[in-house]
């Protein structure tokens, strides 16, 4: 496998790429180099300056993006860090991929950036082609429509709105809202403002907007002080690993979670507060990298269908190839596609795919000024071309297998510090003994030049780019073992 991103460019194109990369790194370092503590003095100075103009409690350190390349980021103090977290799973081809950087000369990119269209009302003449090339070309099987949004939170929010509209439209026999509906909704009264709810899961994360916080249950700090909808929260399986040794226990976890879903739907129905949508992540990434089995998700989809409930799969963090398939839910062997699949992060733009029956026909019901970002579609169009050309999804699947194999070796040596190794593709995680140990391990690894991510109370997760390869994996495991020894 290649150590750096593979370029297949003609001579003239390559020359143009090099010219456009003036001032930007064009090669990947061979290993991390740590010169200062992280954050270093320059990062601390920048954070002080930032505090005068912008909130910054969550800032870890500042990055020199011009010097970062491939799987490595360079911070403000010149520290070269192997990044297996990749902006919280958001960059598909690593930092400053030459073919993506070269796009800044594309007239479509320039005009979209300078004269940014309000896509909800005045889209570009080539907008349909951009959507087709960038998004429909990688659409989950069975989903032929897509709606662009700015980010994952907006995607989930509007997917839920779509589900509510669908539920009420079905109640009206397919007819549009009545005059009574339109008048009563302005006073937030029945029937125009229905008593509907969305079923989410303990440990879930779907965003930080007001509505999404009502189905987010990953960290208390996200929710405290914020009013919330009274929406039901079901159990999500909590498996023991390795899976093959705990089949009976894990099957019971599935049944317990599914029973809670059925019971909540039934109780809400009796109270005339129907569940209109179920939203679920393939992996509860922020909540602790918890997984569900294919059997669990197939039954969950069946429960939704039997009750006329929209089945929404939140692939904001898992979509785009990191699971070893373009979409993680493809590994569930569902009898039909989900009703809606949301995305963002590695897709570079937010949005959701949906079945034809979920199309909203009235104007301004699913709407905002920007409705996404056309420059991101131009970038994604090229990224999809590179991903397909270089077979990066399959490579990610293969590297993910080796990553978990390497972590399992470490688990056998250090069972009190690393256990419950699990994952799909490079979406891989393990647990540590407690929060303090987890946080210390992350700090030590970073001090050695390896960036990983924490999640939940005690978990560590890997979210590398699709160009993460065997040499990067070897370094990752070596640095991680040294960090474990330092504990």
Automatic annotation (TrEMBL):
Its cofactor is pyridoxal 5'-phosphate. One of its GO terms (cellular component) is mitochondrion. This is Gamma-amino-N-butyrate transaminase. PANTHER family: 4-AMINOBUTYRATE AMINOTRANSFERASE, MITOCHONDRIAL, AMINOTRANSFERASE. It catalyses: 4-aminobutanoate + 2-oxoglutarate = succinate semialdehyde + L-glutamate. SUPFAM superfamilies: PLP-dependent transferases. Keywords: Aminotransferase, Pyridoxal phosphate, Transferase. Pfam families: Aminotran_3 (PF00202). Belongs to the class-III pyridoxal-phosphate-dependent aminotransferase family. One of its GO terms (biological process) is gamma-aminobutyric acid catabolic process. It comes from the Eukaryota. The lineage of its organism: Eukaryota, Metazoa, Ecdysozoa, Nematoda, Chromadorea. GO terms for molecular function: 4-aminobutyrate:2-oxoglutarate transaminase activity; pyridoxal phosphate binding. InterPro entries: Aminotrans_3, PyrdxlP-dep_Trfase, PyrdxlP-dep_Trfase_major, PyrdxlP-dep_Trfase_small.
């Amino acid at each position: 496998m290649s150590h750096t991103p593979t370029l297949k460019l003609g001579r003239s194109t390559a020359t143009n790429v090099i010219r456009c990369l003036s001032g930007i790194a064009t090669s990947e370092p061979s290993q991390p180099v740590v010169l200062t503590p992280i954050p270093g003095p320059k990062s601390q100075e920048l954070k002080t300056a930032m505090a005068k103009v912008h909130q910054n409690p969550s800032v870890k350190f500042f990055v020199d993006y011009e010097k970062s390349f491939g799987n490595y980021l360079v911070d403000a103090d010149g520290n070269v860090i192997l990044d297996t977290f990749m902006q919280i799973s958001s960059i598909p081809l690593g930092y400053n991929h030459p073919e993506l950087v070269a796009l800044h000369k594309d007239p479509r990119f320039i005009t979209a950036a300078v004269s940014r269209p309000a896509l909800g009302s005045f889209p570009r003449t080539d907008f349909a082609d951009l959507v087709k090339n960038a998004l429909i070309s990688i659409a989950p099987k069975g989903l032929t429509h897509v709606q662009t949004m700015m980010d994952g939170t907006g995607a989930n929010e509007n997917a839920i709105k779509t589900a509510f509209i669908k539920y009420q439209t079905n109640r009206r026999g397919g007819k549009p809202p009545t005059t009574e509906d339109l008048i009563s909704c302005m006073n937030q009264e029945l029937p125009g403002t229905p008593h509907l709810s969305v079923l989410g899961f303990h440990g879930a994360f779907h965003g930080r907007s007001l509505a999404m916080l009502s189905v987010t249950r990953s960290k208390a700090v996200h929710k405290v002080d914020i009013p919330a909808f009274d929406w039901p929260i079901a159990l999500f399986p909590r498996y023991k690993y390795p899976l093959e040794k705990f089949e009976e226990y894990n099957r019971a976890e599935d049944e317990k979670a599914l029973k809670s879903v059925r019971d909540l739907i039934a109780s809400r129905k009796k109270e005339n507060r129907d569940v209109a949508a179920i939203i679920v992540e393939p992996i509860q990434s922020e909540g602790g990298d918890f997984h569900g089995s294919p059997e669990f998700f197939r039954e969950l989809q069946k429960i939704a269908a039997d009750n006329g409930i929209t089945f929404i799969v939140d692939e904001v963090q898992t979509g785009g190839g990191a699971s070893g398939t373009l979409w993680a839910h493809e590994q569930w062997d569902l009898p039909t596609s989900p009703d809606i699949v949301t995305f963002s992060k590695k897709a570079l733009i937010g949005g959701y795919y949906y079945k034809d029956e979920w199309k909203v026909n009235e104007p301004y019901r699913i709407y905002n000024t920007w409705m996404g970002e056309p420059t991101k579609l131009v970038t994604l169009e090229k990224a999809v071309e590179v991903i397909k050309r270089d077979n990066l999804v399959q490579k990610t699947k293969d590297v993910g297998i080796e990553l978990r194999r390497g972590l399992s070796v470490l688990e056998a040596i250090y069972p009190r510090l690393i256990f419950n190794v699990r994952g799909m593709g490079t979406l891989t995680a393990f647990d540590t003994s407690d929060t303090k140990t987890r946080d210390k391990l992350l700090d030590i690894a970073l001090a050695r030049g390896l960036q990983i991510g924490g999640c939940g109370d005690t978990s560590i997760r890997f979210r590398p780019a699709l160009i993460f390869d065997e040499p990067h994996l070897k370094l990752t495991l070596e640095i991680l073992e040294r960090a474990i020894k330092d504990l």
